[in-house]
Design goal:
By secondary structure, the chain is an all-alpha fold. It has one domain. 81% of the residues lie in helices and 0% in strands. It has two helices and no strands. The protein starts with a helix and ends with a helix.
């Protein structure tokens, strides 16, 4: 099964209710948050790899 987000929300949330309001925040902030998460994770990985490489030189 493949549902669109609106269909999922309509199945689990009361119109105008708490869950519906929460999903609005998730959909509004999700892309920016995941981009920041992956960028920070990759930066930390690079630093860790550099430190590990330096310790073997």
């Amino acid at each position: 099964m493949n549902f669109e987000k609106e269909e999922v929300v309509s199945r689990v949330a009361t119109k105008g209710g708490i869950t519906e309001e929460g999903t609005k925040v998730i959909y509004r902030e999700f892309l920016e948050t995941t981009e920041e998460l992956f960028n920070n994770t990759l930066d930390k990985r690079r630093l860790t790899a550099e430190k590990a490489k330096e310790s073997f030189e």
